[in-house]
Write a structure and sequence with these properties.
about 180 residues; alpha+beta; Jelly Rolls; 5-stranded antiparallel beta sheet; 3-stranded antiparallel beta sheet; about 15% helix; globular
Length: about 180
């Protein structure tokens, strides 16, 4: 269940949007994603509101918790242990991400068929809000800090019952 302060996030996520047909990747619902990002960016999500909903006990790994899910979107927190890094991957749907605590780095890539090419690196401190949508969402995320980091993810997909937003993990060399 989403905390009271998160109800506006749920309302914005419910507004409008597109449904993908079976077998098709979801498209980024531009107005909804922009509204969500702006709401989060301007203080609509307070880190303290979400902090008690995730476990950041320092255990290795990513600790994910789906706070709210419906047929067309999900709200999830991720607690990142120090040094934790995802593999390079892409997604099934659009996403708005806010760093609530700590700092994350993101490497963005281009798929060149036989290899990946690093397209850029982002430094994402507490308070940073970004969004992405397929195609063009090929990336990895890393917590380079000595302490845990916490991020809030709003995906344009139903992540109930252990579903994931990851479409594919890439195991290609980076050149």
């Amino acid at each position: 269940m989403v905390a009271d302060g998160g109800l506006r996030v749920v309302q914005l996520a419910r507004g409008g949007g597109h449904r993908a047909r079976a077998g098709h990747r979801r498209q980024y619902p531009q107005p909804r994603g922009v509204q969500l990002a702006e709401h989060v960016r301007t203080g609509g999500v307070d880190a303290e509101m979400w902090r008690d909903l995730v476990v950041v006990a320092g255990a290795p790994g990513l600790h994910r918790e789906v706070l709210h899910a419906e047929r067309t979107f999900s709200i999830q927190t991720v607690a990142w242990a120090p040094g934790e890094r995802t593999p390079v991957h892409d997604h099934i749907a659009w996403c708005v991400v806010a760093v609530l605590a700590g700092t994350l780095t993101e490497g963005r890539y281009r798929d060149r068929g036989s290899h990946l090419e690093l397209a850029g690196q982002l430094h994402c401190p507490t308070g940073r809000v970004d969004g992405f949508a397929p195609p063009g969402d090929l990336h990895h995320v890393h917590n380079p800090g000595d302490g845990p980091a916490v991020s809030l993810h709003i995906y344009g997909a139903d992540l109930r019952d252990g579903r994931t937003s990851v479409r594919r993990v890439y195991d290609l060399p980076v050149r």
